[in-house]
Amino acid sequence: MSLVECVPNFSEGRDRDKVNRIRDAIASVDTVKILDVEMDPNHNRSVITFVCDSSRAVDAAFAGIKAAAEIIDMDAHRGEHPRFGAADVIPFVPLQDTKMDTCIKLARDLGRRVGEELGIPVYLYSEAAQRPDRYDLAAIRNKNFQYEQLKEAIKDEKWKPDFGPSTVGKAGASIIGARDFLIAYNVNLNTNNMEIGKKIASALRAKDGGLTFVKSLAFFLKDKNMVQISMNLTNYRKTPIYRAFELVRMEAARYGVMPVESEIVGLVPEQALIDVAKFYLQLNGFDENNILERKMEKAAKEQKD
């Protein structure tokens, strides 16, 4: 079995029944295991994480996109997070021995099917991109260019989709790609000043001279009356969680504010959390093989063999 992970982001984070309908559509496909469902009412966005055999990955993702298109009206959607469509971003991630080339093919096959069968415009990004200017997700969709702007811009040659029509319906458009594992990590600050948040986010962003493997934006969380620094860590081995957190803390201090909490959205590799523990506890000589669960897993495997 060739395993892949898929982490589709849907533009609904407030109505659990709708999110459950999308989840159930994905789960109905053979070999699919739903690992996580995250809902965020401020962003009005959900992230569903599933794994399955690569031979069923396109069917599973398509089922989720189809369900989302039927129940989410983008003309009525409002939320803090930038979005293009009901099924907004759909990345495939290789697991175990699966190659990136497999995920690239899955993304392109899914894009073609979504465009042809659902009539939804599709843009390919990251490793699956067919145009260099669409490699970076933020170059396609960002806070200044999202669903409302795309409705008119799609008529221009620059915004011609990779698959599907050059018209935008109520399901919007989908951005489909293949990428390595990333960590969605947010830090909330004890301020409601968005100008401070924007400055901190800029200091973190790779394209603005920050950390190489960090993408970041600032959002205002209405229910908490605080600013959130929302990050994607695209290579947690080279830019670990603790380094991103410490830079947020350092930049915030210059404005007299500080982090009050942080969160991880979706799943996180065990190694990423071990690295955090080793840093803050200064476990410089720590042997990771002494972790109890790892010892137990090794013993169970040896007994099975």
Notable characteristics:
single chain; 305 residues; seven-stranded mixed β-sheet; four-stranded antiparallel β-sheet; 35% helix; 23% strand
Order of helices and strands: EEHEEHEHEHHEEHEEHEHH
Which architecture of the largest domain per CATH? 2-Layer Sandwich
The averaged pLDDT comes out at 95
- How many H/I helices? 9
The biggest sheet amounts to:
7 strands, mixed
Strand content: 15-25%
Explain how this protein is built.
This protein is α+β, with helices and mostly antiparallel strands and 305 residues long. It folds into two domains: 3-178, Formiminotransferase, N-terminal subdomain (Formiminotransferase-cyclodeaminase, Chain B, domain 1), CATH 3.30.990.10; 183-268, 2-Layer Sandwich (Alpha-Beta Plaits), CATH 3.30.70.670. The chain is 35% helix and 23% strand. It has nine helices and eleven strands. The strands form two sheets. Strands 1, 2, 3, 4, 5, 6 and 7 form a seven-stranded mixed sheet that branches. A four-stranded antiparallel sheet has the order 9-10-8-11.
